[in-house]
TrEMBL record:
The keyword Transmembrane applies. Residues 26-283 form the NADH:quinone oxidoreductase/Mrp antiporter transmembrane domain. Its main location: mitochondrion. It is an enzyme of class 7 (translocase). GO terms for molecular function: NADH dehydrogenase (ubiquinone) activity. Belongs to the complex I subunit 2 family. Its EC number is 7.1.1.2. GO terms for cellular component: mitochondrial inner membrane. The lineage of its organism: Eukaryota, Metazoa, Ecdysozoa, Arthropoda, Hexapoda. It is found in: Mitochondrion inner membrane. GO terms for biological process: mitochondrial electron transport, NADH to ubiquinone. The chain crosses the membrane at residues 12-36, 59-79, 149-167, 174-192, 198-222, 234-257, 269-293, 314-336. This is NADH-ubiquinone oxidoreductase chain 2.
């Protein structure tokens, strides 16, 4: 999971974590902006590589997009400081600040850069971009929310996440659109409660980490590789469990945060939004099942030299995490009884 780890990379990982903490613990907008900039400057050396041109291209694209979002954010907070008392201007500024944060985390309709950049990254960097890099923009978003605007954005997120993922053959792009879909769920959980958002993000990060770890160990980047590789049946079953859990199928662990979110939505009479979210989750589940069904059922000629083995430690780790994913919700219900 940590290829070519050296002191430089360790330093940039430390700065990446530290900059997020600066951003979320700052008591001024300018401090938040500085934290975001340090975060950007620490992530670029981690994704750029002289060995792979795709990595360098992804780093350049990421820098340009984040710079545009940062300029927009800085411009918004400066106008906010100058024209504080004008209500109409404040409403527009809240939309501008929200838009710049949404652009930073790759939310629809500012998502066009996200799958393209994910396509040029290693699995570890994909994991960081899909989880850790969403923390500071989301917390800053919670400080200055425009509820009507965010409601519309959430619905666009879950719909685009599904429509974009349906035709994908690249696993990284598929995970990117899955991330966009889950971002809609995270935004609605953020509007309900910050604790619920933190719980959802933790569960999502856990599930994504298992999948990214498995794909990294198998060195798999496209769906057809899952069919061709003569994998151990245990790996295929663990992939099935984790994909179904990520899709939010009960009784897997990934259903738990979605269940709580739907419960809150129905209690607060958001029936239409609940319906859209549930229907889009079903479509996401459809194409997860399609991938796994194909990889289990397709039976290629099994050549001896093409057999794939994983180290025992890696297998144990994947199996242990998959068991948590399978049984976590069942055990958690016993603890709450």
């Amino acid at each position: 999971m940590f290829p070519n780890m050296n002191s430089n990379k360790m330093f940039f990982y430390f700065i990446l974590i530290f900059s997020t903490l600066i951003s979320i613990s700052s008591n001024s907008w300018l401090g938040c902006w500085i934290g975001l900039e340090i975060n950007l400057l620490s992530f670029i050396p981690l994704i750029s590589s002289h060995k792979n041109l795709l990595h360098s291209e992804a780093a350049l694209k990421y820098f340009l997009i984040q710079a545009i979002a940062s300029i927009n954010f800085l411009f918004s907070i400066l106008i906010k400081m100058i024209l504080m008392k004008n209500f109409e201007i404040n409403y527009l500024i809240s939309i501008m600040i929200n838009s710049s944060m949404l652009m930073k985390m790759g939310s629809a309709p500012f998502h066009f850069w996200f799958p393209n950049i994910i396509e040029g990254l290693s699995w570890l960097n994909c994991f960081i971009l899909m989880t850790w890099q969403k923390i500071s923009p989301m917390i800053l978003l919670s400080y200055y929310m425009n509820n009507n605007f965010l409601m519309m954005i959430m619905i666009i997120n879950v719909i685009i996440g599904v429509l974009g993922g349906i035709n994908q053959t690249s696993l990284r792009k598929l995970m990117a659109f899955s991330s966009i879909n889950n971002l809609g769920w995270m935004l609605i959980s953020l509007m309900i409660s910050e604790n619920l958002w933190l719980f959802y993000l933790t569960m999502y990060s856990f599930l994504i980490s298992i999948l990214c770890l498995t794909f990294n160990l198998l060195n798999v980047y496209f769906i057809n590789q899952l069919f061709i590789i003569n994998m151990n049946s245990i790996i295929k079953i663990s992939l099935l469990i984790n994909f179904l859990s990520l899709g939010g199928l009960p009784p897997f662990l990934g259903f738990f945060p979605k269940w709580i979110t739907i419960n809150f939505l129905i209690l607060n009479n958001f029936f239409y939004i609940s319906f859209i979210f549930i229907m889009m989750s079903l479509i996401m589940l459809f194409f997860y099942i399609r991938i796994i069904y194909s990889s289990i059922m397709f039976n290629y000629l099994k050549l001896k030299w093409f057999t794939f083995f994983l180290k025992n430690k890696s297998m144990l780790m994947i199996n242990f995490f998959s068991m948590i994913s399978l049984l976590g919700m069942i055990f958690s219900t016993f603890f709450y009884m």
